């Protein structure tokens, strides 16, 4: 099937919720993907942070081949050999005690909301309020949207969950004013991803942890995008001394196969019991086996170091380009999670990057976001910077 045929079928039969890049990807190898016309692209968006080990990684392919011959799905009516092992590994990495597996990030966010509200109501009737941050993004289900601090996502689907209050990131006074005895949880992305790669100040995270403790509320950290190595540590909060009560993550965990998880400690780890929560697909044998392979790939620490080293190279290179182009207002990031903000729409520049063989994406209309694979090499960062530099020279028609 060629690109035109795919576009025609989608135009007739898909609900049109996506603004597609006119590009049909058909295969990938390492840090590259290939389109239906054979053109090769350096993949620095990685399925929005999913393909951390790149494409067609040998140990991932071996695990898929082996497990597909045994059992792909069995439901949570029965045990499988990998779910308990994966929960053990993830809780050890995060400092949590128990895990619940989901299909993806939004479902993990929903589970975290249920834990927080259930525990809150056991403490006191009406203890159901959640504090979230402006500019945050936690998913597209109605519960996750309720705690997403961007009105453009929430507005078409209201009324959403009541009792959610939004505060300004890194404004401790605003946070203190919002928390009360009715608060059951404070939810924060340590690095806001879809919101434009904004790192939350460690002092703000520490204040949130202190306030949660004082008010018998949970501190929930959303590491769906910034977790599992993306910032150069297993979890982004581990750059600080903060220990959350609940962590949610997803994106790279199963190397492209759908999987998410929420993990809890203390009372939050036991508030849900038999029949209070469930999922059909979360934590299946193939997904969990792939996740164990991913954790094995991270285990010796070399990829964490690579993320830190290449992240610094990419950020510094983008800062050098920013000094040459006055319409670049800021470059920011942590590890291989980097953004370049412009004073104008970023889409023409991202489209030009694609024409030149580099895939990134636009978030918040004016931000170029890059989420390269952890297996990238310095030469790939250099290649990306050369392409970005050429794209930033694009001459746009005057308004």
Quick one: CATH class of the domain at 78-298? Alpha Beta
- CATH fold name of the domain at 78-298: Aspartate Aminotransferase, domain 2
Widest beta sheet: strand line-up: 4-12-11-10-7-5-6
The secondary structure category is alpha/beta
Which residues sit in consecutive blocks of at least 5 with pLDDT less than 50?
none
Q: Number of helix segments? A: 13
Tell me the β content: 15-25%
Task: Name the average pLDDT.
Answer: 97
Q: Spell out the helices and strands N to C.
A: HEEEHHHEHEHHEHEEEHEEEHHEEHEEEH
Major sheet attributes: 7 strands, mixed
CATH superfamily of the domain at 78-298: Type I PLP-dependent aspartate aminotransferase-like (Major domain)
Could you say what the CATH architecture of the domain at 78-298 is? 3-Layer(aba) Sandwich
Terminal Cα span: 38 Å
- Would you report the number of β strands? 17
What is the 3D shape? globular
Range of helix content: 25-40%
Radius of gyration: 21 Å
Write out key terms for the chains shown:
37% helix, four-stranded mixed beta sheet, Aspartate Aminotransferase, domain 2, seven-stranded mixed beta sheet, alpha/beta, 17 strands
Describe this structure in words.
Helix 3 (58-68) runs antiparallel to helix 10 and helix 4 (83-94) packs parallel to helix 10. Strand 8 and strand 9 form a beta hairpin. It contains 13 helices and 17 strands. It has a domain at 78-298: 3-Layer(aba) Sandwich (Aspartate Aminotransferase, domain 2). It is an alpha/beta fold and 399 residues long.
């Amino acid at each position: 099937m060629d690109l035109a045929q795919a576009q025609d079928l989608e135009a007739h039969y898909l609900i049109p919720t996506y603004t597609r890049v006119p590009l049909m990807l058909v295969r990938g190898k390492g840090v590259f993907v290939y389109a239906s016309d054979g053109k090769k692209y350096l993949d620095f968006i990685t399925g929005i942070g999913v393909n951390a080990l790149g494409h067609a990684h040998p140990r991932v392919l071996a695990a898929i081949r082996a497990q597909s011959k045994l059992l792909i799905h069995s439901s949570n009516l029965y045990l499988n050999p990998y779910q308990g092992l994966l929960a053990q590994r993830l809780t050890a990495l995060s400092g949590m005690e128990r895990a619940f597996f989901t299909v993806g990030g939004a479902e993990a966010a929903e589970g975290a909301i249920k834990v927080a509200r259930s525990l809150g109501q056991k403490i006191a009737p009406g203890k159901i309020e959640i504090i979230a941050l402006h500019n945050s993004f936690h998913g597209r289900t109605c519960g996750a949207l309720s705690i997403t601090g961007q009105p453009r996502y929430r507005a078409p689907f209201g009324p959403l969950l009541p009792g959610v209050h939004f505060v300004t990131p890194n404004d401790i006074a605003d946070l203190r004013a919002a928390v009360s005895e009715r608060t059951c949880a404070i939810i924060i992305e340590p690095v806001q991803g879809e919101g434009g790669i904004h790192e939350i100040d460690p002092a703000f995270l520490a204040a949130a942890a202190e306030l949660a403790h004082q008010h018998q509320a949970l501190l929930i950290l959303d590491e769906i995008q910034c977790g599992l190595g993306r910032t150069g540590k297993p979890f982004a909060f581990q750059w600080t001394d903060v220990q959350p009560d609940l962590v949610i993550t997803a994106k790279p965990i199963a190397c492209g196969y759908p999987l998410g998880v929420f993990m809890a400690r203390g009372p939050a780890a036991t508030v849900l019991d038999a029949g209070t929560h469930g999922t059909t697909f979360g934590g299946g044998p193939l997904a969990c086996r792939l996740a164990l392979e991913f954790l094995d790939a991270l285990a010796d620490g070399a990829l964490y170091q690579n993320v830190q080293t290449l992240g610094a190279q990419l950020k510094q290179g983008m800062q050098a380009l920013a000094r040459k182009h006055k319409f670049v207002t800021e470059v920011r990031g942590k590890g291989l999670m980097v953004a370049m903000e412009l004073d104008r729409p970023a889409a023409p520049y991202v489209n030009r990057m694609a024409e030149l063989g580099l895939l990134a994406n636009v978030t918040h209309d004016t931000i170029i976001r890059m989420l390269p694979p952890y297996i990238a090499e310095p030469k790939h960062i250099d290649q990306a910077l050369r392409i970005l530099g050429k794209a930033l020279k694009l001459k746009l028609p005057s308004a």
